[in-house]
Amino acid sequence: MLKKFLIVDDDERFTALVAKKLSEYAQCVVSNRGDDALLQFEHHMREGTPFYAVFMDIEMPQMDGHEAIERMRSIENNNKIDPRNAFKLIMLTAHDDVKNVSKSFFKGHAETYICKSNLHEKLIPELQANKII
Question: What is the separation of C-alpha 38 from the centre of its chain, rounded to a whole number of angstroms?
Fold first, then answer.
């Protein structure tokens, strides 16, 4: 069975690009807002088809990626998801500062952090190295 990925970024062209690159590895669902991503996340969990991985941008209007991830982790916790079965988090963002990188790994429990400027060279190798694909 194909894995399912949630790709969240306010740039629709970027989500389409990432979904295209990952379509041979997983069913890709895209969202362009943090609040919509939360609705998608909850819906798929309730349906018994949770996302294997979430690809998250940081800077988005209304709800940033850090807040969306924090709320997704809370949903998993409330549903008593074993941490070993929690979704894999991949941060895809333009930010490469220490504060955002640290917050992603330590608070969001990210598997990897990829800067958008390195997407073409790093996406597939990083996902393979982290056994996500």
Answer: 11
